[in-house]
Amino acid sequence: MTSSRRTLLPPALLVAAALCLSACGGAPEAEKTAAADSADHPVKATSCGFTSTVAAAPERAVTMNQGATEVMLALGLEDRLAGTAYLDDSVPTKWQKAYDSVKVLSKEYPDHESLLAARPDFVYASYISAFDPEVAGSPAELATLDIGSYNSPLGCGDNDLPAVSFDTVWDEIETVATVFGVPERADAIKAEQQKALGTLAKQGAGDGVDVFWFDSGDKTPLAGAGEGGPQLILDAVGATNLFSDLKGGWADVSWERVVKADPDVIVLGDASWSSADDKIALLQKDPALKQLEAVREKRFVVLPYSETTPGVRLADGAQAVADGLDALDLR
User: Which key words tag this protein in UniProt (predicted)?
Assistant: First the structure.
């Protein structure tokens, strides 16, 4: 497998309204929450050439792909999930309990009938492949069933992709939060990550370090290129991506070019379908690759694959790479 803010009442008015409802014996708590979440609906969510009009904050959403699931968990919306599917690796400890409370529909993509059997009112995915006919079906088809949908703008396949930046990631989180009526939670995530990235920029753990980002592949390696998650992470820590001249988030390169570049450090994404251990074994076994300085000196930085792709954990990925570089003590 290989992004409009809602108008909100001033806080004082919200507090006054809440006190009035409480004092006057207003609606039950669940009804009050639903009313608050849906106050500014309908809202529109646009991505991958389709605009979904969401009449009310969804209550039975289904997420497909780990990135989408973790955005929902980061926003504290696990109680709005009727199901989830398709992890690349493990959900982090901080969200494990929330994830365990959600029904897993399938290890990978569920079939169309299984998805509809979950009675979703919204489908959110990271990759456009989730909307294939045999899986969720197209967003237009879902709309005829009164099911809203949204796909990460960074996973639109052959559609025009936005320029990748942390702002792109935050725009996606904001859109999802707006759909579910909790925009202030997206604001909090953005503020926290901006602070963390500011600290990483000052530390400059990667200053002067040339990096080969090895995603997967054996005969032909798939490298982190200049327009995706790896580039954002390496920029955040001040390191140089040896393949930043290549377009897209990932690109096939040649081992000959890797050998010629002789990177200082090799960053490895650890995925269920391409483990870091397997990639390290390949590098250490090949007669030419084992001569690379980074391989000889075991200068590897490993992080979960889910922290290498644009999403709510990308800032965590930047921190992981910074920590890994610090541990190598190259400065």
Answer: Signal
Q: What is the number of other CB atoms lying within 10 angstroms of the CB of residue 22?
A: 11
**Using one digit for the tens of pLDDT, what is the confidence trace for 45-66?**
999 999 999 999 999 999 999 9
Q: Which residue type occupies 249?
A: G
Q: How many CA atoms lie within 13 A of 257 on its CB side?
A: 17
Residue 189 CB coordination number (10 Å): 19
Rg (CA), the chain: 22
CA distance 179 to 184: 12
Query: Structural domains in the chain?
Result: 28-192 (3.40.50.1980), 204-328 (3.40.50.1980)
DSSP state of 271: B
Q: How do beta strands 240-241 and 300-304 pair?
A: unpaired
